[in-house]
């Protein structure tokens, strides 16, 4: 009995310490917004990545002087509206030209959604030196290329006309009223007056199922098996985060629940893999899955689960306890 009492005095603090360790590693955080209501105002988030499947709707714009100028679909001077942008997100209710981006033979076609040009494709008049934007039933193929040196989506046409290539750009003139979105020669007006455009994706997902499909499409080409962080992953994460936060709260909970439905398992497994593999600062756990990473812990791999920590914690207690028991038994034997 005395041995047990002495052992208890030594082991109890260790057990308490182990319990603290277990609690600190198994504790989960849920950062899902309590509001969760989808906004009636359309939201757009900047896209700075390329993907094989541009699902959803997009608009064309350019950030300028702390705001963003978005194309209104018209032709000629001042064919844009200026809006505020916050954390790469723009809010608008009307006045923006929306497009579906369809894969074509060698590039992509921009098909207008809504407005007077609904169903027609973005095109240009090849007979002009600096053709304005236009719409027709066939359109012109565009090449979407991400420019890593300038966080934008650079769009150039694949179609050669009269030995020249054309780019869709925002042309900024001294007189702001003359500035506009237009096609120009790739060797045209000069780098100080024409700017590479950017794409902004309209947030349309209203269900966990729609979010899942968008997430799997966007990340299909970015999960490097060697653990290399793709240059464009931060932008993909920003878009996915904005889309998730715009879901109704009951749809968010389908993804943040500890008992995820089988229908969402593939997306959640990929999501957790990415969060565990890459920097927690740039790739946050915005769903609130309770994923905790400490890259400096040499005892654990980055993809270790909380179960590993529990096993090691209790294992340490067991080793210490056995050592103490052996020590007291040895002393008792000597004292006889």
CATH architecture of the largest domain: Trefoil
- Distance, first to last CA: 16 Å
SSE-based structural type: alpha+beta
Query: What is the H-and-E element order?
Result: HEEEEEEEEEEEEEEEHHHHH
Summed over residues and divided by their number, the pLDDT gives a mean of 73
Overall 3D geometry? Answer: elongated
CATH class of the largest domain: Mainly Beta
* Radius of gyration (Å): 28 Å
Could you list some keywords that capture this structure?
336 residues, alpha+beta, Trefoil (Acidic Fibroblast Growth Factor, subunit A), 3 domains, six-stranded antiparallel barrel, three-stranded antiparallel beta sheet, 6 helices, 30% helix, elongated, disordered N terminus
Describe, in short, the structure shown.
The chain has 336 residues and is α+β, with helices and mostly antiparallel strands. It has three domains: 2-26 and 301-335; 43-201, Trefoil (Trefoil (Acidic Fibroblast Growth Factor, subunit A)), CATH 2.80.10.50; 205-277, no CATH class.
Describe the structure.
The protein is an alpha+beta fold. It has three domains: 2-26 and 301-335; 43-201, Trefoil (Trefoil (Acidic Fibroblast Growth Factor, subunit A)), CATH 2.80.10; 205-277, no CATH class. 30% of the residues lie in helices and 24% in strands. The chain has six helices and 15 strands. It has helices at 2-26, 208-219, 233-245, 249-256, 265-277, 306-335; strands spanning 42-47, 58-64, 67-71, 80-86, 89-92, 98-103, 108-113, 121-124, 133-136, 142-147, 152-157, 166-171, 180-185, 194-196, 198-202. Strands 1-5-4-3-2-15 form a six-stranded antiparallel β-barrel. A three-stranded antiparallel β-sheet has the order 13-12-14, with no helix packed on it. The chain has a two-stranded antiparallel ribbon with strand order 6-7. A hairpin with an 8-residue loop joins strand 3 (67-71) and strand 4 (80-86). The longest helix has 30 residues, at 306-335. The chain starts with a helix and ends with a helix. 28% of the residues are buried. Residues 1-39 and 294-314 have low confidence and may be disordered.
